[in-house]
Amino acid sequence: MCRQIIFSILFLMFYSGITAQTLTELNKDGELSLRGLSVVDDNVLWVSGSKGSVGKSTDGGKTWKWMHVKGYENADFRDIEAFSKNTAIIMSIAEPAYILKTTNGGKSWKKVYENKTSGIFLDAMEFSDPQTGYVVGDPIDGRFFIVKTTDGGNSWKAVDAALCAKSDSAEACFASSGTNIRMITKEQCAYVSGGSVSNLIIRSDKIRLPLLQGKNSTGANSFAVKDSITFIVVGGDFTDLPAMPNCVFTLNGGKTWNFPAKSPSGYKSCVEYISGNTWISCGLSGIDISIDNGLNWKQISKESYHACRKAKNGRAVYFSGNKSRIGKLNLE
């Protein structure tokens, strides 16, 4: 009994310490909705969003270069993938849907993909390496839509529809943070859906998620990967923020799913793996952290953010959201 009490006290002390971390606002009081976020290293990060907007910082968010992509001023760039201070790829969502690339720091952008299909809606983008990337879109003719690049985003080709998963009625993806598609191995991507039902989809196989579902506004918005068998999925209902369940996790590649003992605080649009057993999640209801692989979550900020991403090459964690808001997690 004494050992259990001591362990509980140490756990609470550790949890209290790590969740005492604070958030620094780097940009705010603008008019943009920033759902695209890509962090190259501790200093270089890019954001993208409404009104054809892209922002870039090379000093850890202290200063920003803002641009509205010429000819695409009405586009909503819901996702961005950056590889350096010079090279980045942005994705606009719908009718027509575009993918653009810059190699000169945003001075100019080249259209590398265009799709005018009726009903086209791109949701998120993910790269396994600088050459190979995927974009997932809402279903077309009853199947999810995926395009792939193998040349660093210079060209994109639609994956054969027969290889893409069939969709249930009113099932789609959410373009809420650019994180509903992830690589679960170097060769294999997976994505999550919501709406009438919520699934984790690997190739054409669908694994039903025990999240809130049944309405167009419900279901999985984002998932993150620690390794090939450890995933966390978040979502909920963006029209009813407290609605539950909003988070599930698996330790065996989706064979079984677990609910947190203490869930994140309301609707979440993004989850990101940090290191060890630590994960971060954000949404309209604030920012939450878990240090035990998703079993327990604690709110560390009530500020609303759409996306959170950790540096690909570094430790920094950044956030982006409405009103041009950008934040940084102050790590101990």
Write structural notes for this entry.
- By secondary structure, this protein is mainly beta.
- It has a single domain, classed as Methylamine Dehydrogenase, Chain H.
- It contains one helix and 29 strands.
- It has one helix at residues 2-18, and strands at 23-27, 34-39, 45-49, 53-57, 65-68, 77-82, 88-92, 97-102, 110-115, 122-127, 133-140, 143-149, 157-158, 171-172, 181-183, 189-192, 194-195, 199-202, 205-208, 218-225, 231-237, 247-250, 270-275, 278-283, 286-290, 298-301, 307-310, 317-320, 326-329.
- Strands 1-29-28-27 form a four-stranded antiparallel β-sheet, with no helix packed on it.
- The protein is globular, with a radius of gyration of 19 Å.
- Residues 1-19 have low confidence and may be disordered.
Task: Tag the structure with descriptive keywords.
single chain; 332 residues; mainly beta; Methylamine Dehydrogenase, Chain H; four-stranded antiparallel β-sheet; 1 helix; 5% helix; globular
Major β-sheet strand ordering: 1-29-28-27
Q: Helical element count?
A: 1
Task: State the order of secondary-structure elements, H for helix, E for strand.
Answer: HEEEEEEEEEEEEEEEEEEEEEEEEEEEEE
Morphology call: globular
Helix content: under 10%
Uncertain ranges:
1-19
Which fold name is given in CATH as the topology? Methylamine Dehydrogenase, Chain H
Q: How many individual domains? A: 1
**Radius of gyration (Å):** 19 Å
What is the class in the CATH system? Mainly Beta
In whole angstroms, how far apart are the ends? 32 Å
State the oligomer.
single chain
Quick one: CATH superfamily? YVTN repeat-like/Quinoprotein amine dehydrogenase
Query: Quick one: how many beta strands?
Result: 29
